[in-house]
């Protein structure tokens, strides 16, 4: 019996913690502990991949002669075929099926297995691979990446550090930049422990008068700050920012096995490109991340809300180079993001091919996904001034005059959000007033609305109309928030809205429909009319008895009593 408890480890720590355990029985026991404990999907996948890796060597090859195809379904045959690698055995099975049941689906399965095994043998013989870039293999096509041969040529390159693009708006360092620095610090501290390395967090500041933020980004976790200032960079411009960032990323290239035009000596670094890079999932951050990763010939996972680094076992022949074989890839950044459904999450991986390397592994991060760390003013960091020449062609647009629009309401960063949806339709103005009264009981609360309120034909009195505009919309096409407490009143829980608030610490929903979709992802669900429930919650907050109010209104689980302010 093992003493190892997976519940003692975060998912990001679990992979390195079990990497030296190769006893299948022990791993099975750890898996059962996870199932009985926190039952985390990511942890289960990590343990199962480890079990699968060491189970393969112990498996007895399938006995083709012992298979009675007439008694087996197509699915049964497909499973049995995975353990048969002998071509003659497979051909014998195909002949037996043709002379027996003669099922087309089964014959296709056997033939596919034959093709797969034969393909593995051919690749094992190291058949010649055409590694020329696409523009050389297809000279008749117009390739926009024609000028990136020095990037594509990298194989066996050197990659180090995690880079963080620290965005500023109106001269100020935005919160998501601080969140990413804190997360990057956490990831790289763990990385250095796991792999016995000394890789760093590198902050990137681009703009006009951004040097004033150097001390801040170091305090939030950066080891190195690469700065580029120019009065032409006061406003975000796609071409200029992309070229500058990519020049920073390629500078100091040490690779000598491919073309490194664009690289130059840099005293502070000795690698070709960053290992990892993070961008904010803001309007400008989304633009820049896609352009930079495309220019660096790598991949991007957009709008992520979770990150961790560990090993991953992959069987995809595009990645392993050999069909039917598995390969363990190390130091992979696992980038978790909500699916388009809004109800599931996917983990995106950026993994090398046998003939190509994809670095940096890149992600854009949804604001509010991580906590803003406490700054450490005693931290010290290296400051690098980027001084490569800027091409005038990078600045095709010059802003000569502009009007400052009302910046609207920023709902991110508040402790509490009270959001209302179509359920206020019976008395729209009163519904907003009730939300105001409830929000007023908290020290740091704001009011949000769904898209249905913004685009609907509701009539609001003038004194509440400001709360119904697009700048307060929460969801896929609005703001993405992650408060400590999210109160959803009269909101059905459409996918588009869920994406905007699913990372909230605690979700309390109020709806007359007991089967409303929002119930599935709420911590507390109150079945009732918001026009009756909201006043009672407001009164309960005044008296410090919120838990009792939720329970009496039909919540699935009673919150603890006491003053929640």
From TrEMBL:
Q: Where is the composition biased (Basic and acidic residues)?
A: 94-105, 130-145
Q: Which domain of life is it from?
A: Archaea
Residue ranges for the region (Disordered) are 52-73, 94-145
Any one Pfam family match given in the protein's UniProt record, by short name? ETF
Where is the sequence biased in composition, kind Acidic residues?
55-68, 120-129
| Limits of the Electron transfer flavoprotein alpha/beta-subunit N-terminal domain | 162-399
**Alphabetical list of InterPro entries matching this protein:** DHS-like_NAD/FAD-binding_dom, ETF_a/b_N, ETF_a/FixB, ETF_asu_C, Rossmann-like_a/b/a_fold
Fetch the PANTHER family from UniProt.
ELECTRON TRANSFER FLAVOPROTEIN ALPHA, ELECTRON TRANSFER FLAVOPROTEIN SUBUNIT ALPHA, MITOCHONDRIAL
Record family assignment = Belongs to the ETF alpha-subunit/FixB family.
Q: Could you tell me what this protein is called?
A: Electron transfer flavoprotein subunit alpha/FixB family protein
